[in-house]
Amino acid sequence: MASLKTSPRLTSAQPRAYYRIGCVYDMLPGMEELLNISDDSLIRFMTRWYGPPSKSPDSTSIDCRVSASRNLMKWHQLAGCWDAEITHQSSAVPLSELAEKNGFIEFWVESQGCWSWAISSDAEDFQVFDRDPEIEEAWAPTSENLPDFLLHATVYEAIIGAPYSKGAEVDFDQLGVITKRFKRFPLPAWRWPSLQHRILVGEDVLALISPKAEGGTDRDTICQLRVVGGSPGKLASIGDEGDIPWVYRSKDESAFRQADEPIPDFLS
Q1: What are phi and psi of 200, to 5 degrees?
Q2: What is the percent of the chain with per-residue pLDDT over 70, rounded to a whole number?
Q3: What is the CATH number of domain 162-267?
Q4: pLDDT tens, 171-190?
């Protein structure tokens, strides 16, 4: 198979092409595409997570009423190459519904409307802005450009919709032991769901660290950990040190043992 060289990290002013038609991509060791981000990171990650694309990008189906970034259009084309659902808790606004309002184009929304992301309609630096539409009128700049945001959002949605997951409430000592072989996803934290959320990258698995839920069962519990993968086997050895009360969840419930306790909210 042909290998593609990893491109150098781009600045926020440089657009990033997410895929090249006709190229064959080798899988990088671990999940290196998420640790050393390059032009090819999104297509490499999606191919690793969802398998080879089932369709070619359709460049003839773009219907957009505003002058959106080429990167945003390419994300829509790329997402259409898989039959799998790419988004779950938040999603991209359809290109045909994009509209400029007060100098901004809202392009990504949380499914219940509690958070939104936008780009400036006239800027060329691809800076992403966000806001809580229920309480904030003005858009606030984030620390991400559009290409990085689209990768970040795709990874987050892969965690939310993963076919297999295990979760537990853990303290800092337990967290350090469980995640010692993980590395931190190098993109900035979002304000939504909270600045305390963190994504970790493992060997073909991902982890999401979230703040402690109200009413935790243990006074020493400080955070919630969710580890996800494409098969039960990828999760089997993670967190087997110590007595961690894991709760397992699977789209194929027969693949995991059933926990006696109800599934907590953060795994729903």
Answers
A1: -115, 150
A2: 75
A3: 3.30.310
A4: 888 999 999 999 999 999 99
